[in-house]
Design brief:
Number of domains: 1
Number of helices: 9
Radius of gyration: 17 Å
Number of strands: 2
Structural class: mainly alpha
Helix content: 55-70%
Distance between the termini: 22 Å
Strand order of the largest sheet: 1-2
Order of helices and strands: HEHHHHEHHHH
Shape: globular
Length: 200
C-alpha cells in the first residue's frame, strides 16, 4: 500500500509540475549577482539526479520506522506540491542555462536533464530543494530511524541542494524560497495531522 501511495504521489507531482507549464506566460528571471559568481560544474549533475530515487525510496523507508512522521511527511509533500504549483502559475520564473560543451559523462547527463525540462520553468521555489529540506526534517524527527540512514538522507539532501546551483538549474533565491516553503508546509502538515488525530 505504501509503495502504491508513493507511486501515486510521484505521478501527481509530475503531472502538476509539467502540466502547469502549459498555462504559464512571461516567465521572469530572478538571478542575482551571487548566481553569476557560481560557476557551472557539470559533475554536480550526479548529485542532482539522485533526488529522483531519494524522493521515491525515503518515504517507504520512513514508514517502516515511524508511521506518525511518515503521515506528516506525506501531508507536507502534498501541500508543497500544490502551493509550489500555484506559485509557478501565478509568478513563473526561469533560469538561464549556459552552453554545455564537454563530452564527459556528466556533461552528457546535464544536457539530457536540460532537454527533459526544455522550457526551464518552475524555478522559484525549487521543488528539488524543498523536498530535500522536508526529507531532512523528517529524518531527524523519526527517532527510531537508524543513524546511518539519517546521515545518508541529510548528507545526500544537502549535496542535492548545492547541486541545483552548480548545475544552473536554480538560483540562490530559489533555494531560499524552497527553505521557507518547506518550513511552512511542515508546519501546516503538523497542524493537519494533529487535528486528524494522526499524532499521538
Amino acid at each position: 500500500m505504501v509503495v502504491l501511495i508513493q507511486a501515486a504521489l510521484l505521478a501527481f507531482q509530475s503531472i502538476c509540475y509539467f502540466g502547469c507549464q502549459y498555462i504559464q506566460k512571461n516567465p521572469r528571471n530572478v538571478e542575482g549577482p551571487r548566481d553569476e559568481r557560481i560557476p557551472l560544474k557539470s559533475g554536480w549533475i550526479i548529485a542532482y539526479i539522485t533526488w529522483f530515487p531519494l524522493i521515491a525510496l525515503f518515504p517507504v523507508v520512513l514508514y517502516g520506522y515511524s508511521q506518525e512522521v511518515y503521515n506528516i511527511h506525506i501531508y507536507a509533500v502534498l501541500i508543497n506540491i500544490v502551493l509550489s504549483c500555484i506559485i509557478y502559475v501565478a509568478y513563473p520564473t526561469t533560469m538561464r542555462r549556459p552552453a554545455v560543451t564537454g563530452d564527459g559523462i556528466s556533461d552528457k547527463l546535464l544536457r539530457l536533464v536540460y532537454r527533459c525540462d526544455a522550457r526551464g520553468l518552475n524555478c522559484c521555489p525549487s521543488m528539488h530543494c524543498s523536498m530535500c529540506f522536508l526529507m531532512m526534517v523528517s529524518a531527524v524527527q523519526a527517532v527510531l530511524l537508524p543513524g546511518c540512514i539519517k546521515a545518508v538522507v541529510i548528507v545526500l539532501s544537502s549535496l542535492i541542494v548545492v547541486s541545483t546551483l552548480f548545475t544552473k538549474q536554480h538560483s540562490v533565491i530559489d533555494v531560499k524560497m524552497a527553505l521557507f516553503m518547506a518550513l511552512l508546509c511542515r508546519l501546516l502538515a503538523e497542524v493537519i495531522a494533529n487535528r486528524c488525530g494522526l499524532v499521538v
